[in-house]
Amino acid sequence: MKQRILFLDDEQDVLNSLRRILRPQRHDWEMSFLDSPIKALELLTLEPFDAMVCDLNMPEMTGLDLLKRLQSNVNTNNMPVVVLTGEADRSLKRVALDLGATDLLNKPVDGVDLVARLRNVLRLKEYQDRLRDQNERLEELISERTRELAASRMEIIWRLAKAAEYRDEQTGHHVIRVGWYSRIIAKEVGAGTEFADTVYLAAPLHDVGKIAIPDAILRKPGRLNRDEWEIMQTHAKLGAELLGDDRQLRQFVHESQYGLRDASSTGATNPILAMARTIALTHHEKWDGSGYPQGLVGDEIPLESRIVAIADVYDALRIERPYKMGFSEAKALGILEEKIGTHFDPSVYAAFVNGLEKIRRVEAAYADTTDPSELVDVR
User: Fold this and answer.
1) Model's pTM, two decimal places?
2) I need a labelling partner for 231 at 20 to 30 A (CA). Which of 32, 80, 102, 247 fits?
3) pLDDT tens for residues 90-105?
4) Could you give all domains of the chain from N- to C-terminal order, each with its CATH number?
5) What distance in Å separates the CA atoms of residue 116 and residue 247, rounded to the nearest whole number?
């Protein structure tokens, strides 16, 4: 395609002279000639040009004012502008350069000099366009790669959560529902979107420590005895240890992948795993301090854990387990209500009730009988 150049001067004699000088270049360049800066601005908003040659002294609008307008427009601020002037005032020329002019030529214009200057600015514009296109493609590739890495990371997290769940229940979408319920409750309690999305991704790992609990205890159909219950309770600390900030592991990963000796130079710990660790450790704490493993009371329990506690217990009540049948919604809600102020934070329970209609939709969409390929985003 021919490169396009716009010539602007309020004197028709100057424009006619430019036409004669540049007639040999018409096979290489597509040239437009205008005598009005207002018309030039209108044209530039409609059509792209690769360069412009303009006068400084024009009655409707000075060349300096035009340069300001061009620099303020994202569609024209990268277009090279060669300024023609008969003025001897050097300060005026400096102002033109400060306003974004690419080059300056004195009138009367020397044809050979004009063609040479235009070839230079057009070559520069071509390089700039090529570099911009390459940068845009690179940004697209980086964005695509970032999305792929984020999706892979999320898939690993979910698969880890499912690994713990399979040992407990064999099948079902419990961890998915707990994630969705937690997000809904977080939004209803007034937390920001970033917090809600993080708890949605971290909540499914709440019971990951069960991977280390013996099957004889984890799948026991009856009630656990005292010794068995003490072992079961260790899954909270075990999950936190599994999700903890393992500096030796991070050091190995960063040395092998990035060639970095100091893993801390790459930034903070993954916020999803950091929250998942907190949830794994404290989601069995109770509002009145009777929970485990630390016996935290009230607001000492992290908000994310108070949220997940209700989401987890509600879903556990509703689904069938090896040792019980699933309860009706009414019965499950009745059990939760009895534990307000003892097991559950009253304000978080109120948020759960406010989001109950959304929770019902999630429960229906992610029923244990739903084929994984048919799961949908219910947001």
Assistant:
1) 0.61
2) 247
3) 677 788 888 888 888 8
4) 3-134 (3.40.50.2300), 171-374 (1.10.3210.10)
5) 61
User: Which residue shows structure tokens 């070559």?
Assistant: 123
